[in-house]
């Protein structure tokens, strides 16, 4: 049975221009019971007001994946990259030995809603890098592979022993994931409602477990879940 992390029990910070929910300890939210899960260190659900954003700031030794749920996020970094990220596009930034970047909402009317994910890299001191690609269609098992190590056919590659998959479920549609022995799973509901092994989850809810597979069933017209398969 997976353990549930209800949406309302996450850390929360409302800065006016930024409304942010933290699945794990982040910034001023510190909870020793929630410092991360295996290689998954940060999982923030952010809403950024029109015309606002995060100014230029540094990162190092972290694999950072961004998944936009609604609106547009503009990325700029010290490697010279300047791209807009929209729903359906996967983005990965390897901070490595050090990188500066900013993330802003270029719209004057619409907020941007996103999930930002930080993963611990396989080793420290890697070169910084950037990658952005559209997410491909579903595989034979119904999942879309957002991020994985090189050679696995993911939209973006990460230098961590982790896979991030996206599941889109219509009402009554089911998806299953059977992890290999010794791996852990984290699920994060991005939109809609679904049933997880008989338990109902809504947007913002998470779940984790380390034994057996999971079966998901959609309970709304369009639900979306991110699944993290972690060493």
Describe what you observe in this structure.
The protein has 231 residues and is mostly beta strands. Helices cover 0% and strands 53% of the residues. The chain is built from no helices and 22 strands. It has strands at 3-5, 11-14, 18-22, 40-48, 53-59, 63-70, 73-77, 82-85, 89-94, 99-104, 112-119, 129-134, 144-148, 156-157, 162-169, 174-177, 184-191, 193-196, 199-202, 206-209, 214-218, 223-230. The protein has a 7-stranded mixed β-sheet, with no helix packed on it. The two termini are 19 Å apart. The model has no long low-confidence stretch (mean pLDDT 97).
Features of the shown structure:
231 residues, globular, mainly beta, seven-stranded antiparallel β-sheet, seven-stranded mixed β-sheet, single chain
Question: Secondary-structure blueprint of this entry?
Answer:
Elements: E1 3-5, E2 11-14, E3 18-22, E4 40-48, E5 53-59, E6 63-70, E7 73-77, E8 82-85, E9 89-94, E10 99-104, E11 112-119, E12 129-134, E13 144-148, E14 156-157, E15 162-169, E16 174-177, E17 184-191, E18 193-196, E19 199-202, E20 206-209, E21 214-218, E22 223-230
